[in-house]
Amino acid sequence: MITVLSFICHKVSRVDGTYRTVVISTDLSDPRGIAVYPAKGLMFWTDGRRGKVERSSMDGTGRQSLVQRESIKSPVGITLDYQQDKVYWVDESLDVIWKMDLDGG
């Protein structure tokens, strides 16, 4: 079963469905949240099963893992603070809200 979120994480398109393009298709197990920062050309997502928070350019290039399994278990929701340039995400297993800079710092 493909969820709306996993479809969004893998592909982008116009609202009417035309010009659909695969953005991320490898090493993605359980995408749970996505946030985009159009002004900086970045997108961020959580992968719940792999315990990762990642980012890339909105075209899928420059992919980076910002946080991995050592400190988190099941990241789900994610959002951005455009004023402070911060990323916030929720870990459903640890019941914690985390914060970091856009580069993972």
Describe this structure in words.
The protein has one domain (4-101): Neuraminidase, CATH 2.120.10. The relative contact order is 0.16. By secondary structure, it is mainly β. The strands form 3 sheets. The chain has a 4-stranded antiparallel sheet. It has a 3-stranded antiparallel sheet with strand order 7-8-9, with no helix packed on it. It has a two-stranded antiparallel sheet with strand order 1-2. It is globular, with a radius of gyration of 13 Å. Helices cover 7% and strands 44% of the residues. It starts with a helix and ends with a strand. The chain has 1 helix and 9 strands.
Topology:
Elements: H1 4-10, E1 11-12, E2 21-22, E3 31-37, E4 42-47, E5 52-57, E6 64-67, E7 75-81, E8 86-91, E9 96-101
Q: Would you summarize the structure shown here?
A:
Helices cover 7% and strands 44% of the residues. It contains one helix and nine strands; from the N terminus they run αβββββββββ. It has one helix spanning 4-10; strands at 11-12, 21-22, 31-37, 42-47, 52-57, 64-67, 75-81, 86-91, 96-101.
